[in-house]
Design goal:
Blueprint lengths: L9 H22 L6 H24 L8 H22 L8 H19 L4
Helix pairs in contact: 1-2, 2-3, 3-4
Keywords: Membrane, Transmembrane, Transmembrane helix
Membrane topology: Multi-pass membrane protein
Protein name: DUF423 domain-containing protein
Length: 122
């Protein structure tokens, strides 16, 4: 008997990312508007925007079969991409921006895998 692993809780990942994205968006709009420079606030908002995109994308992928590989890449990519932008915005440490593209690459890999796994089986 072969044992298959359970699929990742894709919709759960998406719901958590989206929920935290709403909270961080409100925090940025109300709590950081007078604290951060306009450039740093825009950087923070970019992190929130991409977190929401990927949260909603993961919710959608949760409804599709065979999505075992993409969710973890999308989750990790979002944590790295958005997380580095949040840290950069709040700390002002510019070298954190060098980490952001790593998250973007993980997200691109995730979407590529999602497309491959969504292909019709023959």
């Amino acid at each position: 008997m072969t044992r298959t692993s359970a699929p990742p809780p894709t919709a759960l990942y998406g719901a958590v990312l989206a929920g935290i994205g709403v909270a961080l968006g409100a925090f940025g709009a109300h709590g950081l508007k007078t604290v951060l420079t306009p450039d740093l606030l825009a950087t923070f908002e970019t992190g929130v925007r991409y977190q929401m995109y990927h949260g909603l994308g993961l919710l959608a992928l949760g409804a599709l079969p065979n999505q075992r590989r993409a969710p973890l890449f999308l989750l990790a990519g979002t944590v790295v991409f958005s997380g580095s932008l949040y840290l950069l915005s709040l700390s002002g440490v510019k070298w954190l921006g060098a980490i952001t593209p790593i998250g973007g690459v993980l997200q691109l890999i995730g979407w590529g895998l999602a497309a491959l796994d969504a292909r019709p089986r023959q």
